[in-house]
Amino acid sequence: MEARHLRYALALAEHEHFGRAAGALGIAQPPLSKQIADLEREVGTRLFDRTRQGVFPTAAGAAFLSRARRALDEITAAPVDAARAARGETGRLRLGFVASALLDPLPDVLGRFGRERPDVRLELHEMATSRGTAALVAGELDVAITLGGPRGAGAERLVSVPVGHDHLVAVVSGTHPYAGQPSVSVDQLRRQPLIVAPGADEPAVRAGLHALLGEDSPALAGATVARDVHTIIGLAACGVGVGLGPSRMLAAPRRGTWFCEVTPRTPLPDLVLSFTERERSPVLNAFLDVIRALCPGVGAALDHRLGPRGPRDSQGSRGEGGH
């Protein structure tokens, strides 16, 4: 049974006459009559009643035609769906990210990606850097945004590029003595109760704070540990202490808080986007295109790692550049 047999049967049901159906199909009547008879023999039952008033589906024919319509719809849709998938317009993207990426660049990136690819299913997972790297290596994610480069087993097989740079800033309540000051010094921080993010999963951040304030700093030893940057800002607003976090916190101003630069300026680990090149899908290529457009310098970094983009890459096919 071929798709043309389904089209012939549907045309006959619509026109209720062999001659009119044959004319609509652009074939002669005898071949149409033969094809319908062959179809009935293959199905094993009569599909049409031939009467003087016209040709009408039997009960079996009506059931067959219902399925035939759906089958032809699926056949018609199949190449369309294939082409959309090849362009990265459908499918899924599994993204792992650290919380601070929700301040920048994810709001712009996810907003634009969602508008351009509304039929892609996004699976978003907030997770620490160590977990994000492990999930990416294990094939549980398509792409991850981590604090600092990926570390651990398999990290060397990942393509990684920075998508954001940070330095340390302080946040205090509007009633704090530091409110209104453009900056605070490290010596001032040593004399204040501090609010910091957990360091167990981000050793580079922990090491940087210890290097800044002293390995045996009483301020760090007695610091309030917040879950993420949003909690740091919230606790600072409550007057708990001086919150320390990445400069991307400036993208989340809150009434009743004040941000100060920390002097000397202290760089923090970059936000790093990573993925496995051998598993690049059309959807991931589309996501990387949005990253290229919105994150300065990322396009050049990706080209350096993957090689210049070719026509296949722009269509969502697998890239062939090396690491």
From TrEMBL:
The keyword Lipoprotein does not apply. It comes from the Bacteria. Residues 1-58 form the HTH lysR-type domain. One of its GO terms (cellular component) is protein-DNA complex. The keyword Transcription applies. GO terms for molecular function: DNA binding; DNA-binding transcription factor activity. InterPro entries: LysR_HTH_N, LysR_subst-bd, WH-like_DNA-bd_sf, WH_DNA-bd_sf. Signal peptide: none annotated. Gene3D superfamilies: Periplasmic binding protein-like II (3.40.190.10), Winged helix-like DNA-binding domain superfamily/Winged helix DNA-binding domain (1.10.10.10). SUPFAM superfamilies: Periplasmic binding protein-like II (SSF53850), Winged helix' DNA-binding domain (SSF46785). Pfam families: HTH_1, LysR_substrate. Keywords: DNA-binding, Transcription, Transcription regulation. Belongs to the LysR transcriptional regulatory family. This is LysR family transcriptional regulator.
